[in-house]
Amino acid sequence: MEATTYSSSELMCINAARLLRDGDVVFVGVGLPNLACNLARRTHAPNLQMIYEAGVIGARPSRLPLSIGDPTLVSGASSVCSMYDIFSFYLQRGNVDVGFLGGAQIDRFGNINATVIGNYASPKVRLPGSGGSQEIAAWANRCYIISPHQKRRFPERVDFTTSAGFLHGRVEREASGVRGKGPLVVVTHLGLMEPDENGELTLTALHPGCTEEQVRENTGWPVRVAPQLRRTEPIEEKDLQLLREELDPQRIYLKDGG
Amino acid sequence: MSKLCSLKEAVAGYVHDGDLLYCAGFTHLIPFAAGHEIIRQGRRNLTLARATPDLIYDQMVAAGCAKKLIFSYIGNPGVGSLRIVRSELEAGRLEWEEYSHFGMISRLQAGAAGLPFIPMNQTAAPDLEANNPNIRRVKDPYTGQEVVTVPPLHPDVAIIHVQRADNNGNSQIWGILGEQKEVAFASKKVIITAEEIVEESVIRSDPNRTLIPDLIVSAVCCVPHCAHPSYTQGYYDRDNMFYLNWDKITESHEATQAWLQEWVYGVKDSDEYWQKLGSETHERLKVEPAFASPVNYGKY
What we know:
By secondary structure, chain A is an alpha/beta fold. Chain A contains seven helices and 14 strands. In chain A, helix 1 packs across helix 2. Chain B folds into two domains: 227 residues, Glutaconate Coenzyme A-transferase; 34 residues, no CATH class. The interface between A and B is large, with 56 and 56 residues.
């Protein structure tokens, strides 16, 4: 039998989809999170509810949305509301189970920078900024981060905290009183990192064929390895087929060098 | 009283140098034609507010209309960065004021509701708050816990694109609602651009769909295809290809200025712009109709 081959994006997308439970209410972003949610809904989580920050609830996109406000999100959705309503009645009120996040930098304690590299007042590289992520990271019950595993993306400390992970440690987040539990899993193309009791991201699983050494080389702090390091389940052909043939046939989000 | 006028007249009458302007619409219904008219009329020193500045403000910044930006996400949605805005910010040539989406729309909500400020729950993310003196904290008088506050935003003028409006400005929107209603009520003057101007009886047949009432509207303009390359739900699709192309065009200053020359200064209005796009683009952006089931309001 031929070995299954897949890109890094496909690997991350399928592993992100596995984190979703049937019946979850998910605040969806464009790109890989959108694909992961649609994949989960078409496989193990048929009752997944997709909410988009543009103010769409129960979306059933029939094509791949390039933007977060694509008209396909509205057609066939169960409800549409204003942005103020989606952020207050849905997210702030506690009606969102899962939020997906990404960013230019993710640090040792799961804090995310999507704002600036260098100094805020005189930016070296100006990034897009928070959008909805500051509140999603705080108020969604569970957060998942998807990011390629590269040293520059995983520094010891972010230049700017756009969205709170565990700040300098779990007690600090808990003392702030925010309702969400914070980032529970970081999905990279090498494996999974999860916060330990202190909120520090540690390597808890490797994807098939990936090594601890690769993770160490590509992480900006001396990353710890969980005592029970797992292997993620192999990628199944049927998931790849759904992604490639139905969810992203033009490979807008799935193509990469991996 | 009819407030119907041309977009040219509305911009000349209501948008002034130095104004705080909010062109509404979250991805949907972005009034590009109005942005282009403002560029053609040479407005300067505008403060441009939008949750997502999008291509419309990238173009207005490129044309030299802006002195300051108020925003919560400066990306080209689904593509990457807004190159013009980004390079102006990095070069220190453009002032800015930044919020999260919720902070930004809370400012509009406070403005629309006539409140002195609006509270939000804490997010534990300290840095934006530390860098923007408008984001503050007060003690909740009931629990003693701290909440985060933002002040109201009151744009001098809002431009809001809608599917249909009557002569007086009663405006109906469906699809993504974004921050349209909040912007309209928060602003001092409101310009409506509509795909279609309809009889008042059409509006009155479905009052639940009216988002913006005539009493806060200053001018109504019939501007079909106003939102291109954004979209109008049910009328035409988002021109994703243009959003991708803009990323290429703005790689060079010359190409950006040449684009403005050809597509903004070089056309007289949005009709000419739409015709210039050509039949292939028109065909590509066409949408099949999908009607909602009618509702019965009853005769009383």
